[in-house]
Design goal:
It holds the Pfam family MlaC. This protein is of the alpha+beta class. It has one domain: Nuclear Transport Factor 2, Chain: A, CATH 3.10.450.710. Helix content is 54%, strand content 18%. The chain contains ten helices and seven strands. The strands form two sheets. A five-stranded antiparallel beta sheet has the order 2-4-5-6-7. Helix 6 crosses helix 8, helix 8 packs parallel to helix 10 (198-212) and helix 9 (181-196) packs across helix 10. The two termini are 19 Å apart.
């Protein structure tokens, strides 16, 4: 977790991702062109960053308004159900439906709060997208990029995992210098659950979110 906080803006930029639409088709579609995943990552990233530039003074005065911008521009492109399931690991299978829904809601709020705050620190870092690897059509794709740090230093590598959901790409993990967001949270959550159970973990997330006012 600390690794992500240290990376600050860099991780926030990594979360400026992808893909349009939220419809779910009951029929498995043909594999999507992988180039469309990178294109949508770039387009959505640019939209978010341009909005931050345009509203910089407004956000300095009213930082809480970043939440609505993130919800509008970024959230439709993430599969929080899948992220939450992966983050809970085997505990997801053991949870009942109520626990799953509560966990997804609180985890979603935690991610929005954490990375919205990080986005406020954006200072015109440049994103370089790397060539795609693998087939031209696929059901899963890794979009790779490097972030040039505004204050110098080596670029930070990032990878965004997307999968085909219906006729769209959805984000389900982000890696910074090879460190997975999902794996990080899974490790922390597993420790919390061993100590106090899933309900206690959910209650902690609720209190943390309430305290932050997100």
């Amino acid at each position: 977790m600390n690794r992500y906080h240290k990376l600050g803006m860099s991780l926030a930029v990594a979360l400026i991702l992808t893909v349009l639409g939220a419809s779910i088709s009951p029929i498995q579609a043909d594999p999507l062109p992988t180039a469309s995943a990178q294109q949508l990552v770039e387009e959505t990233s640019e939209r978010m960053l341009q909005t931050l530039r345009n509203k910089r003074e407004e956000l300095e005065e009213h930082p809480e308004r970043i939440y609505d911008l993130v919800k509008e521009i970024l959230l439709p492109h993430f599969d929080f159900q899948r992220i939450a399931r992966l983050a809970l690991g085997r505990h997801w299978r053991q949870a009942n439906e109520e626990q799953r829904q509560r966990f997804v809601g609180e985890f979603r709020t935690l991610l929005v709060r954490t990375y919205s705050t990080a986005l406020l620190k954006y200072s015109d870092e440049k994103i370089n997208y790397l060539p795609l690897r693998g087939p031209k059509e696929a059901e899963n794709i890794l979009v790779r990029m490097e972030i040039e740090q505004a204050r110098g230093g080596p670029p930070i590598s990032m990878e965004v995992d997307l999968y085909e959901k219906g006729e769209n790409w959805k984000v389900y993990d982000v890696k910074i210098d090879g460190v997975s967001l999902v794996t990080n949270y899974r490790t922390n959550f597993a420790s919390e659950i061993r100590q106090g159970g899933l309900d206690q973990l959910i209650e902690k997330l609720e209190k943390k979110n309430q305290k932050a006012g997100a």
